[in-house]
């Protein structure tokens, strides 16, 4: 039997699935990976498209919701830039192959963002009067925080990686 307090009678799925995805991301990010700077735009493009479709499908939002979403993107961009700076980049001087590895602090930051989103959603659902925005606007803001984080991180890594490649090639 499903718990009626959970969305759509889905049971624990809305909580377990994001944690499983987070665990997979953390596991994959913990080891060095080859970095192809020409593909760094793909994840930001996909996440911006998905977020835009989700947010615009909900229709008009309040002024508070709009301001909350702007702040969320800016905070996410700041956290993403910081996470990007914490990403360790290396270049093979002979082959010019770039590798990247996220630092433990960067991994913890990503985990904290996901867990905060889960906690905020649960709190906002049970205490809707505390915030002057709807639960949908709050979850959209957390989604936009993730958008800002991913986009700024990729941009910062791209800038450093491009410079490393230019220095290695003697350009």
Provide a descriptive summary of the structure in words.
By secondary structure, the protein is mostly helical. It has one domain (31-169). It contains five helices and three strands, in the order αβααββαα. It has a three-stranded antiparallel sheet with strand order 1-3-2, with helices on one face. 22% of the residues are buried. The mean pLDDT is 84.
Number of separate strands: 3
Give the overall shape, derived from the CA principal axes: elongated
Whole-angstrom Rg:
18 Å
Structural class: mainly alpha
Separation of termini?
Answer: 64 Å
Strand order of the largest sheet: 1-3-2
The helicity comes to 55-70%
- Uncertain regions: pLDDT < 50 for 5+ in a row? none
Largest sheet features: 3 strands, antiparallel
Order of helices and strands: HEHHEEHH
Number of helices: 5
Average pLDDT figure: 84
């Amino acid at each position: 039997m499903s718990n009626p307090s959970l969305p759509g009678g889905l049971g624990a799925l809305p909580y377990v699935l994001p944690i499983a995805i987070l665990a997979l991301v953390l596991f994959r990010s913990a080891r060095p990976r080859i970095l192809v700077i020409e593909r760094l735009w793909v994840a930001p493009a996909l996440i911006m498209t998905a977020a835009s479709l989700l947010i615009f499908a909900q229709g008009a939002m309040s002024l508070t919701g709009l301001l909350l979403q702007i702040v969320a993107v800016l905070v996410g961009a700041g956290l993403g830039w910081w996470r990007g700076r914490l990403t360790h980049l290396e270049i093979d001087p002979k082959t010019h192959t770039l590798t990247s590895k996220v630092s433990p602090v960067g991994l913890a930051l990503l985990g904290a963002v996901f867990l905060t989103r889960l906690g905020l959603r649960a709190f906002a659902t049970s205490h809707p009067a505390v915030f002057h925005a709807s639960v949908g606007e709050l979850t959209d803001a957390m989604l936009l925080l993730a958008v800002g984080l991913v986009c700024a991180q990729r941009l910062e890594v791209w800038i450093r990686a491009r410079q490393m490649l230019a220095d290695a090639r003697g350009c």
